[in-house]
Please model this.
Amino acid sequence: MTEFSRRYVRSMLQFEAVVRRVPNSAWGNATCCTDWNARELVGHTLKVMTFTEAACGIEGTVSDNSFEEIAGEDPAVATGLIVNRVWEALETPGLLEHYGPTIIGEMTVDDFLGAMWIDPMTHSWDLADSVAVDHGISNDQANTLYAQAVDSIEAFRRPGGYADALHGSNDPVDRLMEFLGRTSIRGCA
Model:
């Protein structure tokens, strides 16, 4: 595995861990991603993970279903299935060097992972904030992601993407989430 693939797998596993901590009664909770409740946020994140499979050249994995349908009745089960599928694909010898189309342009699978590990990590925080569970993002992870985001996130600042940066915190996780334009629905970054 490369540094990018390790980050991506850790990010997926972190997201899965947060999903598994969500109480059944909280799947309808609002999130800071105002168009989605907690279940829909999981469905969005899972769909983005299937774009990784598509970048690997695996056809037929990206669903046309709604985010709610992708997350299903048991979002933890749906998450586990997709995380395992993506992880297994990434273990294929030579796959990280595969070059082809992705949702963000033509590149190697490894470069795609380097750009996209931000998504499950960010949505780990969004989901944890929504349902009041621990996001599990360490200060080291936040600092690494912040350094990467400074160079790459501006292209994703738009409606439906990342909001304008907020500023104010020296805490690594809060600083990262503020930079990504996140506002806690519970009143703190």
